[in-house]
Amino acid sequence: MPTATQKVVVVGQGYVGLPVAMRAVEVGSHVVGIDLDATRIAKLAAAESYVDDISNEVLRSALESQRYLPTTSYLDTAHFDVAVITVPTPLRESLPDLSFIESSAASLAPRITPGATVVLESTTYPGTTEELLVPILEQGSGLHAGEDFFVGYSPERIDPGNKKWGFVQTPKVVSGVNPVSLGHVQAFYDSLVERTVPVSTPKEAELTKLLENTFRHVNIALVNELAIFAHQLGVNVWEAIDAASTKPFGYMRFTPGPGVGGHCLPVDPSYLSWQVRRRLGQSFRFVELANDINDHMPDYVAQQLMAILNRTGRALNGSTVYIAGLAYKKNTGDIREAPSLRLIELLLDYGATLMATDAHVEATRWPAGVEKVDLTAQTLHRADVGVLLTDHDDLPLSVLGKSKIPVLDTKNAISGANVYKL
Fold first, then answer.
1. Which end of the chain is more exposed for a tag (fewer CB within 10 A), N or C?
2. Measuring CA to CA, how many Å separate 22 from each of 58, 81, 183, 188, 204?
3. Tens of pLDDT along 139-151?
4. Cα angle at 333 between 331 and 335, to 5 degrees?
């Protein structure tokens, strides 16, 4: 079984992989953090964290321990005991793109030695671990999974910015391609987190992740569509949600917004829908309907901005729009699949000039065509309309509330004479 002094490879040093790497260093492992983004590796080597949940101090401590090596080279992974794959699995033209998993597996395979364990954490459809990952590992290593080395799947449950439920505190679902593999996978995560939850096979673990995010995706779509209709009916949907949230049973609070972002909600349910259509020849109607509603929320926000400007006698074409917050989630810099990106695309197409504030977003990931500014009264004087997309704690939202320009609040976070609600 794995020990704390083992050599651990974590492929992918982003919002999922970096917390895993730091925790493994903390419990005594020697960790190699692989990422093909040379800019990110350079920052990690300089103790500059780009993941909000990992401070520069934690990163510096890991480097000073000489048990953390950030690198772009798989040559540094030789003789590993455990490898954790946390690479992205995006959608390309609505189809799952598993190329990052395939390339990671192909690079690790020749370096697998008897007794090693490989765990996939990347979100994917049921069957990926056993049908895609294992054959690549076996072919490249010449060894047999479940006998010579061990393979499992453990879905990531990282919630960026969550101060209560971090990596250590969140129960970790674990699985293996056979019982002995499960034992090795569970032993590894038992050394990292407070509680592990074993399931029968990787398929159940893969489905667990998709179930969790499909649940959220569908419910967010419900309140998003409800918000649109409530606005048209002249009903305060936010007040209704607050009232419904007082019910102590049979209700879970979800709130509307400008759309969904990150890897989980815009992508994960589509993996399940794709697999159902591919294997069963049927449509997953709830997921497809939720996709349609959530994907078009940025369009609705753009329409609301048009309507607000029309009230002041202005067109969106030629107007300056100020955007507060670009990341998909509060107090994080994650801009993957963020609804702000689609809204920016729409507003630029309509001929608007754009300014935005978000101190959390990396400079290398700042969207083109958007001027980076601070949220001040002077900044707002240059704008014709504003929109709050992400209510980061470090944003002085009272400045928006006091502004003389109209502001669309998609988070129900500000009040003022010129504030309009989603």
1. N
2. 8, 17, 23, 14, 27
3. 999 999 999 999 9
4. 125
DSSP secondary structure string, 164-177?
SS-TTTS-EEE--S
The backbone torsions φ and ψ at residue 143, rounded to the nearest 5 degrees and listed phi first, read -115, 165
Strands (E), 113-234: 117-120, 150-153, 172-174, 196-198
Among all residues, which ones are annotated catalytic?
264
Strands (E), 131-232: 150-153, 172-174, 196-198
Is there a contact between 322 and 380 (Cβ–Cβ < 8 Å)?
yes
Segment among 30-44, 92-106, 197-211 with least mean pLDDT: 92-106
Confidence label for 336 from pLDDT (cuts 50, 70 and 90): confident
Q: Which neighbouring-strand residues pair with 8?
A: 31, 82
What percentage of residues in the chain have a pLDDT greater than 90?
79
Please report the beta strands in 155-283, taking only residues with DSSP state E, as ranges in sequence order: 172-174, 196-198
Which of 56, 53, 55, 88 lies closest to 332 in space, CA to CA?
Answer: 53
Instruction: For strands 385-388 and 353-357, give the pairing.
Output: unpaired
CA distance 204 to 173: 10
23-32, 67-76, 124-133, 329-338: the lowest-pLDDT one: 329-338
Instruction: List Cβ neighbours of 363 (8 Å cut-off, separation of 6 or more).
Output: none
Comparing CA positions, the residue from 249, 250, 225, 227 lying closest to residue 239 is 227
- Cα–Cα distance, 375 to 358 (Å, whole number): 9
Look at residues 228, 272, 152 and name the one whose alpha carbon lies nearest to residue 422: 228
Torsion of CA 66, 67, 69, 74, to 10 degrees: 140
pTM for the full model? 0.86
Task: Tell which residue, 335, 339, 334, 328, has the closest CA to residue 297.
Answer: 339
pLDDT tens-digit readout, 56-79: 999 999 999 999 999 999 999 999
